[in-house]
Amino acid sequence: MQVLRQWRLFQRYSRYGNYVALDSDCLFCKIINGDIPAQIVFRNENVVAFNDISPQAPTHVLIVPTLHVENAAGLAKMSPTLTADLFVAAGEIAATNGLTGYRTVFNTGAEAGQSVFHAHLHLLGGRGLAWPPG
Length: 134
Ligand code: 5GP
Ligand code: ZN
Fold this sequence. Notes:
- The protein is α+β, with helices and mostly antiparallel strands and 134 residues long.
- The chain has a single domain (23-125), classed as HIT family, subunit A (2-Layer Sandwich), CATH 3.30.428.10.
- It has helices at residues 2-13, 27-33, 72-78, 80-96, and strands at 40-43, 47-51, 59-65, 102-105, 121-125.
- The N and C termini lie far apart (44 Å).
- The structure holds guanosine-5'-monophosphate (5GP) and zinc ion.
- Guanosine-5'-monophosphate binds next to strand 2.
């Protein structure tokens, strides 16, 4: 069953070129696949969004592409459309939560705080957000 589900996803996303599939060792791929539970707040063909397990603001949602790619630049190279879809989802989730202002962040590389190497857009809101960030 697991193999079948992955194969279907591979078929669906192979249109993006090269080798594109979920990675069975990746935490966020497991959440996308339903193998690890998460509080899903938004889902469509290209995007899954779920509450961060360690929220840094009243709204802290992780918005991820439904294919495995390490970081934002890799995603943008693979599919500008899918990259834009993450931001469209952010706007819809923010509106649903009644946020008039919010922050979207991609951390890239361990030095910048990236700990999960599946591209993900943080959506933070519901409190005042200082600038510059820490
Ligand atoms: P990064 O540090 O890579 O930019 O962001 C990774 C985020 O994933 C962190 O904010 C962390 O709290 C969150 N996270 C880590 N493990 C899990 C998990 O198992 N479930 C959920 N929902 N979030 C997670
Ligand atoms: Zn992944």
